[in-house]
Amino acid sequence: MDQLPEDLLADLDVTGVRSLSGGDTAAAYRLETPDGPLFAKTMLDAPAGVLELEAASLEALRAAAPAELSVPRVIRVSDQGLVLEWINESYGAGGPPTEAECGSGLARIHRADAPHFGAIDPELPQRIGSFPVDLSPTDDWADFLLHRRIEPLLRTAIDTGKLDPAASDLLAELAPRAAELAGPTEPPSLLHGDLWAGNRVIDASGHNWLVDPSSFYGHREYDLAMMLLFGGFGEACFNAYNDVYPLADGWRERVLWYQVPPLLVHAIRFGGGYGNAVLNALQRVR
Question: Can you tell me where the transmembrane regions are (predicted)?
């Protein structure tokens, strides 16, 4: 218990703490309380506002989520940690019904009204995950994606030696096509922002939960491309999504463009083969 910040546990009547595995930037714990378990995560050297942004993302998604897709309730947030509703996680596959509910639930979140492209709360620090980004409200999604997301990440990746400088010339060649690559104009959607399979949890009843968001208002194909980057979502998920909120023609051809930002993030954070994956994506988009 002495590993957790005191202000995170205050008045929660915590009777026991157990460390949990998983996560590469935070420590995770199960908190025992008289009212049942809670989940806690701590980031003792968290960049300013990161956990506050995660809490705001969870609350925004929770407000928009339909019955078939849940988001854990935020119990407590501080500069160094979060306490959330506990999820009784299942480690088996949910099957086609679970996949379909994930897709239809996400589609309904994406259909909810969103005021602009950019920050869900302009008063909070402007970040996507731990990366600073200009999230000032805008109506131009293609410009936002190119100039405020891809270009800054690409420069950082090159400057830190994680990406071949040849990527800069490839992006310059693609830049005039930014509007085409981003797809048909659509209204903004509330995005999860980091929707790989590890951030979709299936509980013991086969119900879907979304966790660890990095939300902002953007084009919904951003979330779908992330879902396809590392696998883990079945075809029933995408079919059900399309039934509720039909996707524009050619959306699968745009997946590579939308995967460039998360690939860049992984190149910066982890190096390895991710730099080559960025180059390959840009070459294939070209």
Answer: none
Cβ atoms within 10 Å, residue 286: 11
Backbone Cα Rg of the chain: 19
**Do residues 142 and 218 make contact, with C-beta atoms less than 8 angstroms apart?**
no
Nearest to 144 by CA among 113, 109, 188, 111: 188
Task: Record the tokens describing residue 202, joined without a space.
Answer: 């299936």
Active site residue 194: yes
Q: For 1-18, what is the mean pLDDT?
A: 89
Give the tens place of pLDDT for each residue, 181-195. Answer: 999 999 999 999 999
Coil, helix or strand for 55? Answer: helix
Q: Which of 121, 148, 131, 111 is nearest to 216 (CA)?
A: 121
Q: How far is CA 29 from CA 174, 202, 221, in A?
A: 44, 18, 33
pLDDT digits (tens, 9 = 90+) for 16-63: 999 998 666 789 999 999 999 999 999 888 888 899 999 999 999 999
Q: Enter the tokens of residue 265.
A: 């993030």
H or E element that contains 262: helix 255-270
28: region left, alpha or beta (phi > 0 left; psi from -120 to 50 alpha): beta
How many other C-beta atoms can be found within 10 angstroms of the C-beta atom of residue 175?
13
pLDDT band for position 90 (cuts 50, 70, 90) = confident
